[in-house]
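Annex B. Sample input.
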Amino acid sequence: MSNDITVAAVQMTANEDKERNIEVAVGIVDKAIEKGAELIVLPEMFHCYGDSKIMVDEAEPVPGHTTDVLAKKAREHGVYIICGIYEKTEDQKAYNTSVAIGPDGNIIGTYSKTHLFDIDVPGSITYLESDSVSQGRKITNVDIKDFKCGIAVCYDLRFPELFRIMALEGASVVVVCSAFTHATGKAHWDALVKARAIENQTFLIAANQIGKHPNNITSHGNSIILDPWGRELARAKEEDDLIMAKLDFDLLKKVREDMPLFKQRRTDLYSVGRA
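Annex B, continued. Sample output.
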């Protein structure tokens, strides 16, 4: 395994203008490349975020226009890019998909969101993602350099079993492409991202949207990169931003040796006292 990798998370405010969003994202990706990033993570729905009907109408096949633009960047500079888009389906909905692109420009994996954001918080936010999005059915780890990287999307953060499965299947890094709302994020974002990193002893890269979108939902920002001990390596400002950090796999090895969580899978303990 390589001892380290330089990673970046892009924070931005997407709207319903796809070409504008792609242009903004590519500009920030260029800055990340100039600063030496080897893996660049963009937010959920970075290419179009607003009215659900418009987002479904703007959904693309994979590969498609948006991933082709990023694949060209990846190929030109030999970097990995993971981004969140709406993917076309055969019905009237879309998949909320994160696409991983390798340094040769080829797609090395996709993950379609398995936990859909269906909530009703009185006086705060009501949103039924399942009205326009079909549920994904598979868990995804992709190979990046010499390590495995798990992929999750936004609301998945509330379902620890997904992250544990990725870790048990070898993930040492997990990326979260997100548009986590401010209404829920101010209460839970920090607790969730840190818990998922700590309990699975993985690096975690969470690229979140920021600011108000055309559907009147405001994203929380606070994109973050964490180490396996839950310590912040970088946190975004309250604006479009780029954060970067170096992930040290010697540290990962030490954390897992010092506190060997995965050696204590004592399933027999959970049957004590049960009929």
